[in-house]
Model the fold of this input.
Amino acid sequence: MKALVAPEIEAYAESHSMPESPVCQALREETHRTIEHPQMVVGPLEGAFLKMMTQLVGARRILEIGTFTGYSALCFAEALPSDGTVITCDVDETSVALARRYIAQAPFGSKISIRMGPALETMKTLTGLFDLVFIDADKPNYLNYYRRSLDLLAPNGVILIDNVLWSGEVLKQPAPDASTAAIQELNRAVSTDPRVSAVLVTIRDGVLVVRRAG
Ligand SMILES: C[S@@+](CC[C@H](N)C(=O)[O-])C[C@H]1O[C@@H](n2cnc3c(N)ncnc32)[C@H](O)[C@@H]1O
Done:
């Protein structure tokens, strides 16, 4: 992933934002030592943003698409009230094994429940409304995840969609690959969807923040 923000600016922003919990720090470090593609972890600055969004929305029920090693799920769990819950979905047993270990030792880990299997299938089985949905998995399914998330979104809820700048590749026409094309299509669909208001925040690799219009 290409850094879109200068590293010294990123470090300054990080040092003036909510701190990373000790369990998240240890998990991030172990992910970097032992797991392939550790850059998929959202990291301390976006993690602080996710915690802030959780608190601003007053979220109690969160759905996450893309657990990986559990870093963002732990950020949500830390910011939720004691009766809050996070359902997080993934298909990869190797990374989720690490997530399970850290979730078991985190003081707020019992709020998290992991659902294994393709997220679209899992989403079909879910009932009730979510205050916050975080989409951070396979890019070709982003538009499908967005559509299903709108069905599951509470009236004042928020959908957060990660990597919507895709290292800046979204500027290229024609799209160089299927993932870039899928993200471009998602960004176009959300920004022209009359049912929602959205802002594309240039934090890390880009986060699209979406809520119902009106
Ligand atoms: C970018 S990582 C998630 C990072 C995580 N949110 C964090 O910050 O620590 C994307 C994850 O999506 C998972 N994934 C890919 N395709 C999926 C699918 N169809 N259903 C569920 N998860 C999927 C991958 O296995 C991977 O762990």
